[in-house]
Amino acid sequence: ADKHFQKQIQEMPIKLVYFNGRGLAEITRYMLSIAGVDFEDYRYPITADFKRPEFDAAKSLYPENMGRIPILEVDGKKIGQSSTIARYVAKKYGFAGSDEIEEALNDMYFEHVRDIKDAYQKVRGITNEAEKTAAMEKWFATDLPEWLGKLEASIVGTGGFAVGTKLSLADITIYYFLTTFFDNKEGAKKAYEAQPKLSAIVAATAAHEGIKAWEAKRPVTPF
Ligand SMILES: N[C@@H](CCC(=O)N[C@@H](CS)C(=O)NCC(=O)O)C(=O)O
């Protein structure tokens, strides 16, 4: 009976809980979808002006992420923090490189992208409108191109892969960041198109069958 119970637990489907948006869950959704995992893609409704009464009522269910989401439920346990979830899923389903060094490099690119996002969030957070407009212009004209020059120089992989010779967490992270993170997508595109390795990663990831399949299958959401 114990054995039977073990088996049942192992077969409990993975559930990824987030809002009905891409945000902090999408990189994990890409990996689960590409790996062919039959996961439950649970989405709390959220309006264009960010109202989400259903989640507010259910918040207390998610102490593991300090009352926030995403949450990954696996084997009856809950895991919080989107980056932790992405790394766990990457390791479990083969998106974290082929050895420990490649795993560390995948992590490194994840952190590189986080640093650039953090720098951008400082610009977004400027409250004085005139100052913010000037800082935004500078961000896309100078700051982002500089960051992406440095990111480019850090890429160890070749042929459209950031690490190794197959699609990994690093590629999905870089692709998703460069193509969907910024409201000003044209500005971002101009900046990464100046960088051959980053452009190759974006192109190869966009053309990956599994990436295309998830993008065709996923719900259409405004963010
Ligand atoms: N560092 C956390 C941040 C989690 C987070 O801020 N989640 C937001 C959604 S993107 C949330 O649940 N907000 C609702 C709330 O705080 O009430 C992570 O990466 O998981």
Give an account of the 3D structure.
This protein is an alpha+beta fold. The chain has two domains: 92 residues, Glutaredoxin (3-Layer(aba) Sandwich), CATH 3.40.30.10; 108 residues, Up-down Bundle (Glutathione S-transferase Yfyf (Class Pi), Chain A, domain 2), CATH 1.20.1050.10. 58% of the residues lie in helices and 8% in strands. The protein is built from ten helices and four strands. The chain has a four-stranded mixed sheet with strand order 2-1-3-4. It starts with a helix and ends in a 6-residue tail after the last helix. Bound molecules: glutathione. Glutathione binds next to helix 4.
Helices and strands, with pairings:
Elements: H1 2-10, E1 15-19, H2 26-34, E2 40-44, H3 53-58, E3 71-74, E4 77-80, H4 82-92, H5 100-124, H6 129-154, H7 169-181, H8 185-193, H9 196-207, H10 209-217
Parallel strand pairs: 1-2
Antiparallel strand pairs: 1-3, 3-4
Helix pairs in contact: 2-4, 2-10, 5-6, 5-7, 6-8, 7-8, 7-9
Unreliable stretches: none
| Strand line-up in the sheet with most strands | 2-1-3-4
Number of structural units classed as domains: 2
Kindly identify the CATH topology of the largest domain: Glutathione S-transferase Yfyf (Class Pi), Chain A, domain 2
Biggest sheet overview: 4 strands, mixed
Overall average residue pLDDT? 95
Radius of gyration (CA) equals 19 Å
Shape: globular
Bound molecules: glutathione
H/E element order: HEHEHEEHHHHHHH
Total helices: the number is: 10
Q: Using the 3D structure, state the CATH architecture of the largest domain.
A: Up-down Bundle
Helix/strand/pairing class, anyone?
alpha+beta
- Strand tally, please? 4
- CATH C-level class of the largest domain is Mainly Alpha
Distance between the termini: 46 Å
GO molecular function: glutathione transferase activity
Domain GST N-terminal: 12-97
Domain GST C-terminal: 99-223
Protein name: Glutathione S-transferase
